[in-house]
Amino acid sequence: MKTEEQIQQLAAEYHKLIGPEHHKDRDCHWYIETVWSYGSPARYIVRHYGYLHDEVEIICSNYAEALAALREELKRAIEVEKISQEQEDCVTFPDSDLPGELRTGFEL
Fold it and tell me: Which of 75, 76, 95 has the alpha carbon at shortest distance from 6?
């Protein structure tokens, strides 16, 4: 499978993970910018301006390197989101599991 196809699948997986709960439009966009400055060789910058996943700026020396960096960043974002969702699922517990004196304190 080509890198571009892998990126497309990873981006779809990330969108599916964040979509139901937290979707903000900018969380769904990932970029590779080409920068031509002062006659120097082009630089390729992987960017993401999301709310959920940290903003990303990875400077690469060629397009293939930028594609690989984007693929790895998407994998990282997916793993971070999965961990975050697992932690959210573990935070709540029924107050009936609390001792009576604690349960009374929560009812106040």
Answer: 75
> Among 66, 27, 29, 14, which residue's Cα sits nearest to residue 44?
66
Length of the chain: 108
Cut 0.85: pTM above it:
no
In the prediction, which pLDDT does 64 show?
97
- The domain spans of the chain are 3-107
* Strands 43-48, 30-35: pairing kind: antiparallel
pLDDT tens column, 56-83: 999 999 999 999 999 999 999 999 989 8
Question: DSSP readout, 36-72?
Answer: --TTPPPEEEEEE--SSSPPEEEEESSHHHHHHHHHH
First to last CA, the chain: 58
